[in-house]
Design a protein that fits this description.
Layout: H1 5-32, H2 44-47
Length: about 60
């Protein structure tokens, strides 16, 4: 089944416009101090360190 080229081009235009609007919003928030830095991933190495919660042991009920 062939895709309609006009629909594909319109979809590409809409996605491009949405990405530009998102970039403008991000720059506006940074400029006004509403957003200081990009969100960062969780430091998984620190979570796996010594301050880790002890594992729960499963006890079989008899």
């Amino acid at each position: 089944m062939a895709q309609r080229s006009d629909v594909v081009l319109n979809y590409k235009s809409v996605v491009n416009h949405a990405m530009q609007a998102g970039a403008m919003c991000y720059n506006l928030m940074v400029h006004n101090g509403w957003l200081e830095k990009q969100p960062e991933a969780i430091d998984r190495n620190a979570l796996a360190g010594a301050d880790r919660l002890p594992a729960l042991s499963l006890i079989a009920c008899t």
